[in-house]
Write a structure and sequence with these properties.
InterPro entries: FN3_dom, FN3_sf, Ig-like_fold, Type-II_Cytokine-TF_Rcpt. It holds the Pfam family Tissue_fac. It comes from Pan troglodytes (Chimpanzee). Helices cover 5% and strands 38% of the residues. The strands form two sheets. Strands 3, 4, 6, 7 and 8 form a five-stranded antiparallel sheet that branches. A three-stranded antiparallel sheet has the order 1-2-5, with no helix packed on it. The protein starts with 6 loop residues before the first strand and ends in a 26-residue tail after the last strand. It has one domain: Immunoglobulins (Immunoglobulin-like). By secondary structure, the chain is mainly beta. It contains one helix and eight strands.
Length: 120
C-alpha cells in the first residue's frame, strides 16, 4: 500500500503566530511523522526546485506545524507537508494558495444558544 499524502492544508494565524494544519494520515497502531518545507517569494520565482525545511517540523508527530519562525518576510510563501511511516514516504501536499503573514484571516464564528441561560 502507498502511504497517502496529508490533505486539507490550511494556515491559522492568531496574534502573529502561524500554524500550518492538515488532516492526519491514518495508520492504526502506527506513528506517522510529518515533514514541512517552505518556499519564499525569491525561491518560488528564481529557484523553484528549492524548498527549505521548516525550523521546527522535521519528522514531527502532530498534524500541525508552527511556521512562525519560517515566515519572516511579508511576502507570499508556499508551504508543503508529507507523511513518513517507517521506510514509506508520501507525496508532498502543497497549500493551495501562497500564504502571506499580512493577509487577513477569515474567522469562523459559531453561536450556540444555551436554553438554561435564557430567561423565561
Amino acid at each position: 500500500a502507498i502511504l497517502p499524502a496529508p490533505q486539507n492544508l490550511s494556515v491559522l494565524s492568531t496574534n502573529m503566530k502561524h500554524l500550518l494544519m492538515w488532516s492526519p494520515v491514518i495508520a492504526p497502531g502506527e506513528t506517522v511523522y510529518y515533514s514541512v518545507e517552505y518556499q519564499g517569494e525569491y525561491e518560488s520565482l528564481y529557484t523553484s526546485h528549492i524548498w527549505i525545511p521548516s525550523s521546527w517540523c522535521s519528522l514531527t508527530e502532530g498534524p500541525e506545524c508552527d511556521v512562525t519562525d519560517d515566515i519572516t518576510a511579508t511576502v507570499p510563501y508556499n508551504l508543503r507537508v508529507r507523511a513518513t511511516l517507517g521506510s514509506q514516504t508520501s507525496a508532498w501536499s502543497i497549500l493551495k494558495h501562497p500564504f502571506n503573514r499580512n493577509s487577513r484571516t477569515a474567522f469562523l464564528l459559531s453561536v450556540h444558544l444555551c436554553p438554561e441561560l435564557v430567561g423565561s
